[in-house]
Predict the structure.
Amino acid sequence: MKKFITPLLLIVAPLLMSAQNVFDKFEDENDVTSVVVTSEMFKLLSKMDLSSDDPEAQEYLNLINNLNEIKVFTTENVEVASRMNATVSNYLSSSSKLVELMRVKDKGQNIKFYVKKGADENHVSELLMHLTGTTEDGSTQTVIMSITGNIDLKKISKLTKDLDVPGGENLKKLEDKKTN
């Protein structure tokens, strides 16, 4: 039995690791700003002394207790942006479980949201946002944001706003769509 399990683990492990780390290569790039919030940070946040009588605080705790990771990579470098865009395209084409949820074109920016389905229509296991375009000052910008866990689409914009995640304000549009 061990002879069968060991080779199987050696085959499956890189597949699982590459799915989680597909965007991590950008973390070490000089022209990329990255923010990575791990499950350990969410555990720390969940231990905050919040009033159990406050329903909003309880919703916030429930949200962060169900998250695994948030990764955000941002660049204004055209060459790096091209590689980031190619990586997103490859990731989407290699994952049949990610489906496009929504597209927004606003003020020179194109924002696309993709999800892996979760327990019900309001929850997903992964939310991927890809933003390309120009900022208000005319510079180009590319943002990749990946959130994994048991994500409540109706509440995720609050967390990204509180953490000041680049592009996070666009999640409010997604949340508004799910509420209506």
In short: Residues 2-179 form one domain. The CA atoms of residues 46 and 61 lie 6 Å apart. The two ends are 53 Å apart (CA to CA). The longest helix spans residues 2-20.
